[in-house]
Amino acid sequence: SQEWIRNVLLYRFEKGNGLKGHNLGNLILTALQDMAGSTAKALEIAEHIFRLRGRILPVTDQTVDLVIEYVDGKVIVGEDNLNDGGVGVGIKKVSLRPKARIYDGARDAILDSDVVIVGPGDFYASIMAALAVDGMKQVMRKTKAKIIYIVNLMTRANQTHGMTAKDHVHGIEQAIGRPCDVIIVNNGAIPTKVLSAYKREEEYPVENDNGNDARYFVSNVVARDTAQQSKADVLHRSLLRHDPKKLAKIIMETI
Q1: Straight-line distance from the first to the last Cα atom of the chain, in angstroms, rounded to the nearest whole number
Q2: Is 157 helix (H, G, I), strand (E, B) or coil?
Q3: CA 111 to CA 101: how far, in whole Å?
Q4: Residue 59, Cβ neighbours under 10 Å: how many?
Q5: R_g of the chain, CA atoms, integer Å
Q6: Along the 255 residues of the chain, how does pLDDT read in single tens digits?
Q7: Sign of CA dihedral 187, 193, 198, 200
């Protein structure tokens, strides 16, 4: 069944030399990349094999590293090192090395879209990294699509410490070269136990400081259940998630 396929792809090995901690879906995709010769082709094959709904397109088909430049002038290369800057050390910008061009399929999809939804996800590692490819700013300016940005629920100690909703929006708008049309911000209550767990990591709810900006849609969009992380997963994962049904309802209302 589709549920079993989903569970298999999300499975993370808990033992085995060289396998422990790895996600099976990522390993399958890596194998398909090696066999097909490109990320785009690998994703296309995966769509057919697993009968996925919708299309998955890479933002670029080139191999790149993430370059993190801090406000104090320090430069670190590699997404794995993104949390090494220290709590509260400001990130000036992220870029890609070598410079990468936007994948034609992604460019065409953005140009043909009625709505482009940005986020949620790690602000620098996922969103800003994807927006850093050459040609992205030009295509986001050119598309007639409405731009919806979903603000993160919580800050990240080593990345977005102290950043408010407006700070997040400013960074996104700098990257895409145009204003966002709709900005979704959570105002739902977060359980005290969850807040305490985040506080131990020096992470806090993103402050909503939108003022009277009419583009902001402020609503309870936090999921009631917290995410359960595999014991084999050694990476930092968020406990909280946006509620997909609540988000979908808001997005449909705004368009």
Answers
A1: 33
A2: coil
A3: 16
A4: 22
A5: 19
A6: 678 888 888 888 888 888 888 899 999 999 999 999 999 999 999 999 888 888 999 999 999 999 999 888 888 898 777 766 566 678 899 999 999 999 999 999 999 999 999 999 999 999 999 999 999 999 999 999 999 999 999 999 888 999 999 999 999 999 999 999 999 999 999 999 999 999 999 999 999 999 889 999 999 999 987 655 444 444 445 689 999 999 999 999 988
A7: positive
